[in-house]
Design goal:
Immunoglobulin-like, 8-stranded antiparallel beta sheet, about 0% helix, globular
């Protein structure tokens, strides 16, 4: 196995270094927990690997990917990892990892080992941390998957439904029904808009979105009233799209967006339009990333 090269950090996550997306469909279950790889975002100096952990065990899910993640490829290459974003809550954790180097063009598979997952429960004596899974969770990510892009279905008329806020978490292992790989990007002069994946749950779905720009553009989190997402399917259903969490840094933003109602099992494709993203050009206050950026996503392959 070859040694990983010197680590240069996630500063290379910018539009000029962006090399495309690999859809992710790898899901592994172990001891009441679920781990999924949502995509691979390729850059010239490394890659971004977003990972999702779900558990129905009580408590807040915890994980330090810097010490609890190993990444190798089918050619014998090994990768350094560095957590650059994380959102944790009851029963769910999303961790975004920068890995180096970028996978070589002839690599066909990434093998991931996830260890050190924990859950923390709160009692009268404070928080108690316990192991969530005994031993590593292993999953493999295909670097040469099938295409997920299709023509967007005809857009139905009308506005999306107004869905009242729910106390139920957007993500839960018990309600998880599957992962729809997307891994698509649209580019203009100001940046790239990326769709990572769609997670299917019993009563809703979660769409993961990212934007990548350059230093001259400041990006903010996608939030209610900041940015627009329109989502519909080939059956004529419009979906309510509600950002539920996000992270923004100098040259990138990522967000999880709850879609309701649930996607019907007989739907074959989704249309997604992203517009008016929260960003501005530093020099002249021009609004970049206004789009629209339109995607067609295959639901059944």
């Amino acid at each position: 196995m070859s040694a990983a090269p010197a680590h240069t950090g996630p500063g290379e996550r910018r539009q000029s270094a962006f090399g495309g997306l690999v859809p992710g469909s790898a899901v592994a279950r172990a001891d009441g927990a679920l781990v999924a790889a949502l995509a691979v975002e390729l850059h010239s100096g490394g890659a971004v690997l977003p990972l999702l952990v779900l558990s129905d065990a009580p408590g807040v899910v915890g994980w330090n990917a810097d010490t609890g993640l190993t990444v190798t490829d089918d050619l014998g290459g090994a990768y350094t990892v560095d957590t650059i974003a994380q959102s944790a809550g009851l029963g769910a954790l999303q961790s975004t990892v920068w890995m180096e180097p970028s996978p070589p063009p002839d690599a066909r598979r990434l093998d991931l080992g996830v260890s050190g997952l924990t859950r923390t429960t709160v009692g009268r004596r404070g928080g108690v941390e316990k192991p969530l899974v005994e031993g590593p969770v292993e999953l493999s990510l295909d670097l040469l998957p099938e295409r997920t892009a299709v023509d967007p279905p005809p857009e139905p008329s009308g506005e999306p439904p107004v869905t009242p806020s729910s106390r139920a978490p957007s993500r839960s292992q018990g309600a998880f029904e599957g992962l729809i790989p997307v891994g698509q990007a649209r580019l203009d002069r100001d940046g790239a808009v990326c769709l990572w994946a769609v997670e299917r749950y019993e009563e809703r779905s979660v769409l993961t979105v990212a934007t990548i720009t350059e230093d001259r553009i400041n990006v903010d989190e996608l939030a209610p009233g900041a940015g627009r997402l329109d989502v519909w399917d080939d059956l004529g259903t419009r979906y309510s799209a509600l950002p539920v969490h996000g992270t923004a840094r100098e040259t990138w933003m990522e967000a999880a967006v709850e879609l309701t109602p649930a996607i019907p099992s007989d739907a074959r494709s989704l249309g997604v339009r992203v517009a008016d993203l929260p960003a501005r050009v530093v020099e002249d206050d021009r609004r970049p990333l206004t789009g629209p950026f339109t995607f067609g996503v295959a639901l059944r392959r």
